[in-house]
Amino acid sequence: MLQSRALVIALILLLSTTLPEVHSKSIFEKDRRDWLVIPDAIAAYIYETVNKMSPKVGQFLVDAAQTPVVVVTRNFLIRETTKLSILAEQLMEKVKNLWYTRVLGY
Questions:
Q1: How confident is the model over 58-105, as pLDDT tens digits?
Q2: Residue 103: is it exposed, middle or buried by C-beta count within 10 angstroms (0-12/13-18/19+)?
Q3: Could you tell me the residue ranges of all domains in the chain?
Q4: What is the model's pTM?
Q5: Buried b (16+ CB within 10 A) or exposed e, 11-34
Q6: How large is the C-alpha radius of gyration of the chain?
């Protein structure tokens, strides 16, 4: 029992999410800069599967996912990956501009 709890907590920390956020976000959203959408979807699938088998364990998952440590860590990761995404988009625009002006001569 202790090993399964440790596994559940590890899964939550890796795929930490709150359930309303998962169901409100689409994996295929075009303007999405949040790189955690796929782990969110996986976490929602795990929650739904576990909740069908044992609602008590499902409630434990929900409670664990909403602890302050998990929420703060998740928000930090979202904020930082969004910054990286914006920088990558800006870099791609600069490379595209260089390509068109220097290489192709437009």
A1: 899 889 888 999 889 888 988 888 888 889 889 999 999 999 998 887
A2: exposed
A3: 1-104
A4: 0.55
A5: bbeebbbebebbeebeeeeeeeeb
A6: 19
pLDDT of 37-62, one tens digit each?
A: 777 788 888 889 998 999 999 899 88
- Angle formed at CA 70 by CA 68 and CA 75, multiple of 5 degrees: 95
Residues 6 or more apart whose CB falls under 8 angstroms from that of 11 comprise 43, 46
For the chain, the residue count is 106
CA triple 67-69-73, angle to 5 deg? 120
DSSP 8-class letter at 98 = H
- Looking at per-residue pLDDT, the higher value among 90 and 4 belongs to 90
94 vs 106: CA distance, rounded Å: 14
Side chain identity at 9, as an amino acid letter?
A: I
